[in-house]
Amino acid sequence: MKTYLNRSLALLLFFFGVSFIADAQKKPEVFLSKVFINETDSLNKFVLKLYDDQSYEFLKFIKNKKILNAKREQGEYNLKGKKLNLEPKSDKLPFEHPYNYYFVEDNGLFENKKCEGDAILTLSNDEKFSQAFYTDPVFGKISNDRKLGNKLNDPKLNSKNNSFSPPEIIAATPPVKEENIVSNFAKLSADSLKRIKVIIVVGPVEESTKKFVEEKKELATFLRSYGVQVIEIYHPKANWTDVQEASKDAHIFIYSGHGSTKGENSCSGGLCLTDGITSASDMSKGLQLNKNALILFNHVCRGAGSSAGDDGDIGKIEAAKRVTDYSYPFIQKGAGCYYANNTNGSLQPFLERFFNKMPVSTIWKEVSKSKTIVIDEKYKHDKRYHISLGSDDESGSIVTRTTTTNGVKKVEKIKGFISYDEAIVGMPEFSVLKFFEK
Q1: Which of 276, 367, 393, 412 could serve as a FRET partner for 73 with CA atoms 20 to 30 Å apart?
Q2: Contact call for residues 45 and 70 (beta carbons, < 8 A)
Q3: Pair (130, 227) in one structural domain
């Protein structure tokens, strides 16, 4: 009996010892320490994750045409005072970026020691990064699994027979009263989103027509992913009669095409459509938009200030006059905001924020960060509105200018100058919620 007890005790001690050793050899759980993001461009997003074991993940989400991709870099980091140093595991780097940053608490990471200008990566406290998965309006479900190389290709998401249902963060803020939140940005109910009507119009722009149409078709797909109604009218079927009919009660009016001088008193204004130029006067009479409409102009000469035919810096006063003239027919009819930009893919970031219930004054501050603001004042036709213009300075460089006059295309090299290619006229607190006011 004594021998049996001794053996039993020995076995217990053995298993206890094995268990103790196994526990001692277990790796401690790793926790997320800090997250830095750059999501100003919805098609190119950067996420830098720092963990408490001094490891990091640097992710780049990119959309090239219709292909979604996630690139990852791993390594170790060292944060001493303000200076953050990243040391990647591999010499084969998936994308370029600095390896030394300067950290400012409650702000983000800067490239220069003085921490001047805007942070290149901003500090994020969004809870979605501490969850198993979260949903992005462009890239869909994204995994936070550290072991997974491709964050968009998690087998738990793609396996048809897998019954696992991962927790998913849809909104970073406390839940709102609306039900059926559809994405990280859209915090309107599904029913509210279905009530929003968008009309997209692209007129003839010679060899650029195909490119503009493709860009707007992609934008239409993005909008439909939110559940909103979208009507698309493209050249060679962009006729004024159809535009008028489609505009009835539309909340968002989007136009790409040539600019013109058929505004009031032969000033900037008008739409260049398949069946001719529609004047500002005809627009005022014919368009039947929602009284609080959002107007978005993209790639429209004079719409944001500058024109392809400008021979030099037109000056901020002339640029503001063009924007004022172009926006006037819409503001006159009660539109809440007119926003114009001459950059590819610029409307989607604006709309993402707009569906997030951001007021247009806040949206403007975010989307115009790369510009020099040259005008910021009351709108002369209605003091309830504000007008702001952003510029780029290409002085000292040589740029290629393409113009078309009476169907004749001209390509030439000219000296760069200051251009005005982003502008807004709006009520500062105007937001998507205005669509639902009676």
Answers
A1: 367
A2: no
A3: no
In 112-251, the DSSP E strands lie at: 121-124, 133-136, 140-143, 168-169, 197-202, 229-234
Q: Specify the pLDDT at position 223.
A: 93
pTM: 0.59
Domain that includes residue 209, residue range: 190-436
Range list of H helices, 148-296: 155-158, 190-195, 209-224, 240-246, 280-286
Handedness of CA 367, 369, 371, 375 (dihedral sign): positive
CA atoms within 13 A on the CB side of 333: 23
Residues 91, 208: one domain? no
| pLDDT tens by residue, 235-253 | 999 999 999 999 999 999 9
258: tokens are: 């040539």
d(CA 425, CA 166): 43
Contact between 162 and 156 (Cβ < 8 Å): yes
* CA nearest to 101, candidates 82, 118, 117, 116: 82
H-run or E-run covering 332: helix 316-332
